[in-house]
Specification:
By secondary structure, the protein is α+β, with helices and mostly antiparallel strands. The chain has a domain of about 40 residues. Helix content is about 25%, strand content about 20%. It is built from 2 helices and 4 strands. It is globular, with a radius of gyration of 14 Å.
């Protein structure tokens, strides 16, 4: 990757702000069947499988 390509990427804090603003307090069922509540202290961590279609699973099922 050259410097021009590297400059197109934003830092992780931008993604964190988007996720927090859009998802905080919302509840979802993941592709693996487990549940997540964003912003809950005891909520599941999640894994996003990036490809032609996204798959969102919990971190336990992602290993």
């Amino acid at each position: 990757m050259n410097n021009k390509q590297k400059l197109r990427y934003q830092g992780p804090e931008v993604l964190q702000a988007i996720l927090q603003r859009e998802l905080y307090g919302k509840k979802f069922v993941l592709h693996c069947g487990h549940h997540i509540t964003f912003g809950a202290m005891l909520g599941n961590d999640l894994t996003v499988k990036n490809g032609k279609e996204f798959r969102v699973i919990c971190a336990v099922c992602g290993y």
